[in-house]
Write a structure and sequence with these properties.
It comes from Jannaschia faecimaris. With 294 residues, the chain is an alpha+beta fold. It has one domain: Sandwich (Jelly Rolls), CATH 2.60.120.620. Helices cover 19% and strands 21% of the residues. The longest helix has 16 residues.
Length: 294
Amino acid sequence: MEFLTHTQKKTYDRDGYLLLERRLSAEQLATLHDEIDRYTAKARGLTEGTDELDLEDSHQPEAPRVRRIKLPHTHSAVFRDMMLSDTILAPARDLIGPDLRLHTTKLNMKEAGYGAAVEWHQDFAFYPHTNDAVLAIGVILDDMGPENGPLMVFPGSHRGAIHDHHADGYFVGAMDLARDGYDMKDAVPLMGPAGSISIHHGRIVHGSALNTSSKSRRILFYEMMAADAWPIMGSMTKFTDLADYDSRLLCGQPRQPRLADVPVRVPLPAPPIGKTIYEIQKGLHARSFETAKG
């Protein structure tokens, strides 16, 4: 174990999540905040999203509202350096092994007063793999409390089924919580001071409410898997060829696929609209959270 204790590893295996408080220094946080400001400044004057920025439905060119910075590691050295640091990779290696491959990155921008909700879902429903050594690490960039839409999880749900994320015959990237036997009162919010890190298993049921508070709630997510977890056909994992796929190794060596007895659903037929989870989830009828107003 490089960073985590054996007790933390057992807790993760049992519950499917961890919260590590104050993992980043004040200097690291300041650098990340400055980089976010650089991106949000680009949103002023935009009438639609770009390859880098996903905009809130309530965005106006003169009153910019950014919902997500997309794939930040591909166009920001700051976010890429953080991804490759032991701050991120050491706890991941402790949980799923020394050979890690990147799935994707994103910076969800729940700005004060309107930050969009994310409906209940399981990441593994979007990208099923040959085994479930799959996780997401969230860098908490602002103090996070119950009032500003924290990430919420159902402990132990990573050891259960992969639920149906379809509606009207299409994949919509979200569950019907009541149909699948969950009660929101049993969800646990992952809250902590800025600079903390959350880790959640790829199969755990999670979501987050609208941020209606006066405080921002921004999280930088690095999603990754063990190098022996290979995408199943129909997964939303994108790559062009083996060289491209192996270029996503974060550390260690490429591995042959390891096939494990894990539940799988394939996210097909593809959603008729949207490329981000916010757009895809608009196809869900049984919503659990309010949507942002103008």
